[in-house]
Amino acid sequence: VKTVAKPLIATVGMGVFVYFGYAALGPALGDKIAAVLLITLAIIIYFLLLVLTRGFTKEDVLLLPNGEKIVKVLKLK
Cβ(53)–Cβ(6) under 8 Å? Predict the structure, then answer.
């Protein structure tokens, strides 16, 4: 349950953001620009939601380049 629930929450949150964001920005900016902007923002939203839900472990982050610095910033245990 832990392995699925937290990423699922982050995915649903990101999806809701993109859905409503596209409805708001699509007509104003055009489809292509809105899509590129929302893809970029979706990545950021997904990452932030994973941080908020503690969706990854210290060991996961240590696998990334500069993982030790990221662990210190995120204060993971």
Answer: yes
